[in-house]
Specification:
- The complex is a heterodimer.
- Chain A is α/β, with parallel strands linked by helices.
- Chain A has helices spanning about 15-25, 45-55, 75-95, 110-130, and strands spanning about 5-10, 35-40, 60-65, 100-105.
- Chain A has a 4-stranded parallel β-sheet with strand order 2-1-3-4, sandwiched between helices.
- In chain A, α1 crosses α4 (about 110-130).
- By secondary structure, chain B is an alpha/beta fold.
- A 6-stranded parallel β-sheet of chain B has the order 2-1-3-5-9-10. A two-stranded antiparallel ribbon of chain B has the order 4-8.
- The chains are: A alpha/beta, B alpha/beta.
- At the A-B interface, α2 and α3 of A face α12, α13, α14 and α15 of B.
């Protein structure tokens, strides 16, 4: 039995969350590993949330935001890009696998792209195994 | 004598700098001693032994201060005993509340730390490569022991319940003075609070663009403190020197900023912050103009974990969990 990762997803309500909705309408298939949390903007996601998720045993964290130029609040996704670039490095320097954390730009029209990202990320996490801080979600161990 | 507040100070895994800060009250301390009775101040100031503390009845001490983090088995034991003997326990200074400088040792293994401290450091003369051993049998009959070095550091509140937190490395003497005054008149917030003015370093800092009336612009070039001399009047962040002022408690009166040094967050997080380093990432990154500037920052400041968690490594749940696993 293969391990099912537990992914915490933060999705911007203007794009990635709509994209996930579209993926459903399109009947696009992707693994049931992601738990989406709707946020007003990817810029609302504090690095604290990501670290909290990992500390509590999430196997992966995905942040989905709008493409540059599409942000409803003009510069929210630019701020996210800056923050998460530094956060990735911080995770690595803290002795944690930075690949467990992912930032993707998925628009409301990219339903298939959303499914593809989740599938790809789930596969990668399956190869990495459970989060060493907790040992995964207990499934398939 | 009866109505004096029974006070204790304990130095755990710290440098005694926080106690220096108390002593720096000078005459103020002498005045306060009319209302305070020091029943325990070890191992630094008073001639009392740990055994005397163990012999005190439970809840005997009215007010106990701990400075320093939990680094070895002795710290762990004495802090637990002190908790039992005290009504109110205050974690005093950056180490006790957040982990402090030495908590960055958690980013290394025990072996790495020992190797550096007892073999390769410049001032070490140890040709046989001897490491300290917790137990040693001298002459075949004297069993000598020293405290055991724990696998990872802890803050005081990760080990016992703590009523109040005071930040700073060390807490500024002026602030300690105010604090002692507040304690003596019983003007204290609910248990579990930080004792603080509640303002960020930027609120206190004279360079704050909001005070000087300058426009706050995105930072285009990152500088380290070794790159030239910063303008004395202008906000350091605006000049590209990374400063933690926006998220740090300003009970220090922005002392570092007054001498042209960027804040590194010893004062502890301003209210509402769960994880100091992560919030710091958020604040600094959003002041940068674009991703290239962020890349430049990573390049120049080398280790992000040691940068953002200079004083608060252990206090972060994420870091603490990684540290707990590193010796396995």
């Amino acid at each position: 039995m293969s391990f099912t990762p537990n992914i915490v997803g933060f999705a911007c309500q203007w794009c990635t969350y709509a994209g996930a909705d579209l993926a459903g309408n399109l009947r696009a298939k992707y693994p049931p590993s992601i738990k989406l949390i709707k946020v007003p903007c990817s810029g609302r996601v504090e690095p604290e949330y990501v670290m909290e998720a990992f500390a509590n045993g999430a196997d992966g964290v995905l942040i989905g935001g709008c493409h540059f130029g599409d942000c409803h609040y003009k510069t929210g996704n630019h701020k996210t890009a800056n923050r998460m670039k530094i956060l990735s490095q911080l995770l690595e320097d803290s002795g944690f696998e930075r690949d467990r954390f992912r930032l993707e730009w998925i628009s409301g029209a990219e339903g298939y792209r959303f499914a593809e990202v989740v599938e790809e990320f789930t596969k990668e996490l399956q190869e990495m195994g459970p989060n060493p801080l907790k040992g995964g979600n207990g499934h398939g161990r | 004598m009866a109505d004096k507040v029974k006070t204790a100070f304990l130095l755990a895994g710290g440098c005694a700098g926080c106690e220096m800060s108390v002593v720096d009250l000078n005459e103020g301390l002498v005045d306060a001693l009319a209302h305070l009775e020091i029943v325990f101040w070890a191992p630094t100031v008073a001639d009392v032994k740990y055994k005397d503390l163990e012999d005190m009845p439970d809840q005997f001490i009215d007010l106990a201060f701990v400075d320093g983090m939990i680094r070895n088995s002795e710290n762990l034991h004495t802090v637990k005993v002190l908790r039992q003997k005290s009504k109110v326990l205050v974690a005093f200074g950056a180490c006790a509340t957040l982990g402090g400088i030495a908590a960055m040792g958690d980013l290394h293994t025990k072996e790495e730390l020992f190797h550096q401290a007892y073999k390769t450091s410049f001032s070490t003369d140890n040709p046989d490569g001897v490491y300290p051993t917790p137990e040693y049998l001298l002459d075949g009959k004297y069993n000598l022991t020293i405290p055991t070095f724990l696998d990872n550091c802890s803050t005081i509140d990760q080990v016992v319940d703590v009523e109040y937190y005071v930040g700073g490395c060390p807490p500024h003497p002026a602030f300690v003075g105010k604090l002692v005054g507040a304690i003596l008149v019983g003007n204290l917030p609910p248990a579990g609070s930080w004792l603080t003015g509640g303002k960020a370093v930027c609120d206190i800092c004279k360079r704050n663009p909001a005070i000087t009336g300058q426009e706050r612009l995105p930072v285009g070039e990152i500088k380290r403190t070794i790159d030239g001399a910063p303008d004395l009047e202008k906000c350091l962040l605006q000049q590209g020197y990374m400063c933690f002022g926006p998220v740090t408690q300003g009970d220090c009166g922005a002392s570092c900023l007054n001498v042209n040094i960027p804040c590194r967050g010893c004062g502890g997080p301003i209210p509402g912050i769960k994880d100091f380093g992560a919030r710091c990432v958020s604040t600094l990154a959003s002041s940068m103009a674009n991703e290239d500037v962020a890349a430049q920052f990573i390049e120049k400041y080398n280790n992000m974990a040691k940068m953002f968690y200079r004083y608060s490594h252990t206090a972060s749940k994420f870091n603490h969990r990684i540290a707990e696993r590193k010796e396995q």
